[in-house]
Amino acid sequence: MSQSFNQSVIDEFRANGGKVGGPFEGSDLLLLTTTGATSGKPHTVPLGCVRDGGLLLVVGSNLGAPDHPDWYRNLLARPQVRVEFGTEVFDAIAVPAEGERRDRLFAQVVNVAPGYADYQAATSRTLPVVVLESAEPEYVAADGENPVTVTSLADKLVQVHTWLRAQLRHVRDEAEAHLAARAAHRGPGAPPAPGLGLQIRQHCLAFCQSLEFHHTGEDAHVFPAVARYHPELRPAIDRLQEEHRTIARIQNGLLALLADIGTADPKRFLTDLERMSDELRAHLAYEEEQLIPALADVPWPPPAP
C-alpha cells in the first residue's frame, strides 16, 4: 500500500475512534508504530489484526511479496512498539511466534481472515505471525509494592524498574523452558526447536534497550538535577554513573550469552544468566535506595512551563 493511502487510513482511524471504511470496514484494525531499524524514527502503519484472548496478532504478509515488510524488520531490531486499537493506546513488546505456536496462530488468523492463506500461497517465505504483548500491565502486576498511581519522579523510577525486572524474569523463564525442551529430547537427530528463540531475543532486546534509554535520561537530566539540589548525593551519583558503564558491558554479555543458547551447556548457561541478572538487579536496588528520597517531592508528569 502506498504511503499516501496508509496516511489516509491512519487519519480516518484516529478521527473515528478506530473505525475505518473501505477495504478495512467490518474487520479489526490497529495502528502499529515501530522505530526504524536504521533511521531510529517512528513509523506508523495500519494493519489488520486478530484477537487471541487478551493479545493481538498481526501478520507480516506484505500482500504475499517475497520480502518481509519494513515494519517487521523494524520490530526485530527494536521490539518495543506503540499500538492503537480502537480508542486504546498502549506500549507493547512485539514477539514473533515460532514453530508449532506460529502454525497454530496462523491457522487461527486464516479462520478469521482467509485472505492470509492466499498471501502465504503466493510466496515461499513463511509469513511471520507477531504477538503484541502489552507491557503496561506489568508495571503493576510484576511488583506488589509498585504504586498504581504515579505522582512523583520517585514513583516513575520504581515503575520503570518494575518493568525492567519483569523483563529479566521473562528472559529467565523462557531460557529455562528452552533448555528444558532440549533436555527432554529423546531419540536420534537434533532436538526439536522449542519455539522460544525469538521470544527470548525480543524480551532481552526490550530489556537492554529500555535500560540503555533509562540510563541515558538519568545521565543527561535526572542526575545533574539531583546533584544540584542534593550535593550530599554526589558520591552516590558518581558511583551510579560508573555503574552505568559496567551495566552496558553486562548488557552486551547478556545478549552474547543468549545468542549461544542453542548449544550452551545448560548448567553453565543458567549460572551465567543468574550472575548477570543479580548484578543488574543490585544496580536497580542501589539506585532506588539512593534516589527515591530525593525524587519523592518532584512531581510527575512535570508541570507545564
How far the N terminus sits from the C terminus, by CA atoms, comes to 41 Å
- Distinct helical segment count: 9
Oligomer: single chain
Biggest sheet strand line-up: 2-1-5-6-7-4-3
Mean pLDDT rating = 86
Write down the secondary-structure element order.
Answer: HEEEEHEEHHEHHHHH
Structural class: alpha+beta
Shape: globular
Q: Extract low-pLDDT stretches.
A: 137-144
Binned, the helix content reads 55-70%
The biggest beta sheet reads:
7 strands, antiparallel
Count of beta strands: 7
Q: Nearest-angstrom radius of gyration?
A: 22 Å
Strand content: 5-15%
Quick synopsis:
By secondary structure, the chain is an alpha+beta fold. It contains nine helices and seven strands.
